[in-house]
Amino acid sequence: MAAAAVLGLVAMELAAAQTPADESRASLPRTADGRPDLSGIWQSFTTANWDILAHSAQAGPHPELLGAWGAGRAAQSIVHGNELPYQPWATAKQKENFANRTLVNVTNDPSRFDTGDRELQCFRAGIPRANYMPYPFQIFQTPDEIIIVYEYKGTYRTIHMDFDSSPPSDTWMGWSNGHWDGDTLVVDVTGFNGYTWFDRAGNFHSDALHVVERWTPLSPYHIRYEATIEDPKVFTRPWTMSFTLYKHIEPEAQLIEFNCVPFVEELMYEPLGLMGK
């Protein structure tokens, strides 16, 4: 009886020591090999696609034409410390990017290819930006690879879980190698072409970008996303961003096609006189 009483007290103490986070992790859906099951449709509800740093509400680039339609919400920063450690030349370049963010290159001058936000032209968003654009994405998970399909432009990426490999070439979305650190999915991403921005505010990187993502499930319906950014060509030190991803639990939840190509054809080709030919 005494032993049973002691065991009962120990069990009560252990139960009392559990936190809500412990209980949430215990309820995580898991795959057959015991890993957290991240499958499903997820979405960020930040305004980081407008600006990853803290920002006030502001008019769009053409308020006289778009009014409130082009305006952006105020929001807190997703960057730890709310500061980007740009090299001096890169600080000036970011300001230039912001001033030219709505310009579209319509010449054959290669020196102008880095003018304007690629989102405006319907190019792929890159990593980590694709994860905080205002569009959902879907995760498909197997032991050997994890595939993420983004609603924006139908972009997808493969996270290779069975082995580490080098990127065969530089691309918009980079090359992803993943592994598990406990219940956290860690993804090492390299092989970027250097043409994407982090946001519409002109925060940018080079082709030396190296991103380490950490996807940590907090509950069956929440993932803590963290990305450490390293780019010795642009920044003086690594820096980190983080935010929460929310799972869509509507019974009929699905990705709806957002093929932005038809929306930008006139913008890109009308100045060249190629529309209607």
Structural domain tally:
1
By CATH reckoning, the class would read: Mainly Beta
Summarize the helix and strand pattern as letters: HHEHHEEEEEEEEH
Strand numbers in spatial order across the main sheet? 1-2-3-4-5-6-7-8-9
Report the helical percentage: 10-25%
Question: Could you please say which CATH topology applies here?
Answer: Lipocalin
Q: Measured on Cα atoms, how large is the radius of gyration?
A: 22 Å
Strand portion: 15-25%
Q: Characterize the biggest β-sheet.
A: 9 strands, mixed, barrel
Classification by helices and strands: alpha+beta
In words, what does this structure look like?
This protein has one domain (about 35-55, about 75-270): Beta Barrel (Lipocalin), CATH 2.40.128.20. Helix content is about 15%, strand content about 25%. The chain is built from five helices and nine strands. It has a nine-stranded mixed beta barrel with strand order 1-2-3-4-5-6-7-8-9. The model is unreliable at about 105-115 (pLDDT under 50).
Characteristic key phrases:
277 residues, alpha+beta, 5 helices, nine-stranded mixed barrel, Lipocalin
